[in-house]
Amino acid sequence: MDKAKDRRDGREYTAHEVAQLSRAQRQALKAHLCCLYCPATAHFRSASRSSPSRRGKVEHFYCLPHGDECDITRRYADPWETEEGDLTVTRWEQRDATLIVRIAMSPEAGSDESSAGSEGTESESRSQGGGDRTRSSNFVSRGPQKLLEQLVEWPSFKTSSLTIRMPDPDRTEMAVHDAFVRFESAELERHTATWHGFWGIVRPLSYWALGETYFSNFGVPNSSFRIAIHRNQVPSILSRYGLSRIEDLVGHYLLLFDNARESTSGRFMADVNSIEYTGFLRNNED
To answer: Between the chain's N and C termini, which has fewer beta carbons within 10 Å?
Structure first.
């Protein structure tokens, strides 16, 4: 999880915000953090660097276990929440699972919603001793943040033929290897008119004052793909990811879901229309 809240006042913290606190401050906050969707205590785990035998991880929260009726484990049916790696991809492929892009809307946009909705049937059972609940579902929900981590850290995920349901109004389904497009590989003829997840390392940003928009360009000059961030989106980006200025995106991974378009000036463009449709991951390889 990338967010947790303080039981005392309901304030929400991102994992990156907690990472910036002193050890004493984190210790004082520790007992009061919980899941956004259930009372389970949320434990903070610091970021770790990659090593030859272990993939690095971004700072995050986890709960063991979540509450029985927690949205994370009940509504979104994610039976392998704590497992990572290519083994998980293999398991999803073996059971022909469908991934669903989950967009949890901010309070300003309304109540929490998900493009997953109530999908399929989910069977549940309990052991006779009243132990853990076991689950069976053919749908696995992932938010943009987790999907970006999988694209960066799981070699087999980005090439998988798993079906993924996009967060567009038509709930378009396509193969994972077609759904996610590296910024440098985006093509106007192939990647417009349908939602995609565009991702990669952000290049330097330039500001166009007339349109109040920041642009980052990719590809060759005469057919450049660009991502566009309107100035009104900047405050939410800085707050969510703990950045001092929008230029701090440069050099790090960004994922954005959008129906890319050809602008009136003929430029191939994808827009950051809402922070809820993005994921951000610091690049620790520099």
So the answer is: C
